[in-house]
Amino acid sequence: MNSAMDEINLLRQAQRQHQHHLMVRGMGEEIDLEIGPGDDPSFSGADLVAVASGHHDTDEHKSLLIPCSGAVDGHAQPPAPQPQLAHGEEHDGKLRRPSAHTKKKKVVKKWREEWADTYKWAYVAVHDNTTRIFCSVCKEYGRKHRRNPYGNEGSRNMQMSALEEHNNSLLHKEALRLQMASKEKLQPPEIERPVYVKALSKTAASILESVLRRDPHEAEFIQSIQEVVHSLEPVLVKNTQYVQILERLLEPERCFIFRVPWIDDRGEAHVNRGFRVQFSQALGPCRGGLRFHPSMSLSVAKFLAFEHTLKNSLSLYKLGGAAGGSDFDPKGKSDNEIMRFCQSFMDELYRYLGPDQDFPAEDIGVGPREMGYLFGQYRRLSGHFQGNFTGPKIFWSGSSFRTEATGYGLVFFARLLLAEMNKELKGLRCVISGSGKIAMHVLEKLLPCGAIPVTVSDSQGYLLDEDGFDYMKYSLLRDIKAQQKNLKEYLKSYPHAKYMDDAKPWSEQCDVAFPCASHNEIDQGDAVAIIKSGCRVLIECSNMPCTVQAVDILRKAKVLVAPAKATAAGSAWRT
């Protein structure tokens, strides 16, 4: 005991004389001693000698480090007892203070190993030329902190502490909840796919090259432009004066991107992004759909607005083209949540709408319910109730008065096309993709024509009834979709039917195909499957349902492809 007290007194004397900051650390920890102003400069080069504390703790052994400068109070420094070492370690009697560079690397390695084992939800990235620690769920990073004894790497530790606090915040909890609540499996980060460009003449290629330079990452918009340029190539070669006109047409007049904050039923805040593209008002006020879907982006909005511009130009009405929406997903949301989102969406958009400027319509995720919420907020903000859809007697949400117009018109177009081939729909086997508004009305209209529709689909697979759907089966499907149930519910009433998970219906034998789901749903593999199924006619129902490569394959196989710009021209404006 006396020996231990002597050692402690010796340490106190050394501390008073040299005024060094002595720090107690557990054996094996990284040690960083800071020298304050006025300290002995020889201290930085002195060796560090380990001194046993004399009191052995049951959990761990600790040691005290003092500078060994040769003598204390004029007396030689006695050799200190060696601290206990872990099994297999060797010690030469002295602990050398490593250089700052070597120590920094060692701390970095140790910190990263600890982070990799403990914080699975975090990752390191550079932001504004500064290394930050980000949350992999919501991409937020920890706050910037002052330097601590661990230096820059210690700042990372402090960032991690801030990020842990962030994990308990509403923002992170909501991002994690939405991620876990998603029915679809998490996909790896999307890799930018190269844009497929067909061989064009020099005149037509110059138009497409200018678009590629201006918007290289907007794949959907570039694809829609490429289809038009390729179709008009013979005209552009003969009439070069149209090149400048087309170049002006390919640039939208106005694009709006805005924030849409809303509150869910638990009182938690969310933020989505809203879009509206008014592509052209050359013929009249803009008209186009609103789409609420997670895949919504500026590229999709521009492509849809461009498609509506061309479709409306083929109708009897003098209308321009527009499109918009949000990356908001209405699936799984309550009526109150959808109402609050629609009201917040309209708070920003209403100033750009009007009977002489722009009036929206329905699209994916937006039906009569959503249109009612949107119009109610528009009327409240604008202060008047006016018709600005199809005419003086049809009000703002007027497209819901004849929701079947687009689907019926597609079947009517198919009948005219087959009549040119001296054929009719009666007895023909038809394959339909999708189960939304357009797909269900296509199915409904095929029944009185005598056709045999055998499939419908959703995001999880497709339903096949070899006997074909009749009026009773159609009524059941309509009720299932109205209750927002899965198509598998159909099997409870008709067990002979089949539901194919994670598959598309294009391999089923058919005479006519009606793709009604979404854009680019038919790729090269699907095109080959359609050819093998015996299909001879494909009626494009959704906007740009086939990729450029798929269209080339189908046409080489003599499959007649009716483009959506013609089949859906006018859409709900049909009477």
TrEMBL record:
Residues 399-570 form the Glutamate/phenylalanine/leucine/valine/L-tryptophan dehydrogenase C-terminal domain. Its EC number is 1.4.1.4. InterPro entries: Aminoacid_DH-like_N_sf, Glu/Leu/Phe/Val/Trp_DH, Glu/Leu/Phe/Val/Trp_DH_C, Glu/Leu/Phe/Val/Trp_DH_dimer, Glu_Leu_Phe_Val_DH, NAD(P)-bd_dom_sf, Znf_C17orf113. One of its GO terms (cellular component) is cytosol. Keywords: Oxidoreductase. Pfam families: ELFV_dehydrog, ELFV_dehydrog_N, zf-C17orf113. Residues 69-105 are annotated as: Disordered. The keyword Protein biosynthesis does not apply. One of its GO terms (molecular function) is glutamate dehydrogenase (NADP+) activity. Transmembrane segments: none annotated. One of its GO terms (biological process) is glutamate biosynthetic process. Belongs to the Glu/Leu/Phe/Val dehydrogenases family. This is glutamate dehydrogenase (NADP(+)). It comes from Panicum virgatum (Blackwell switchgrass).
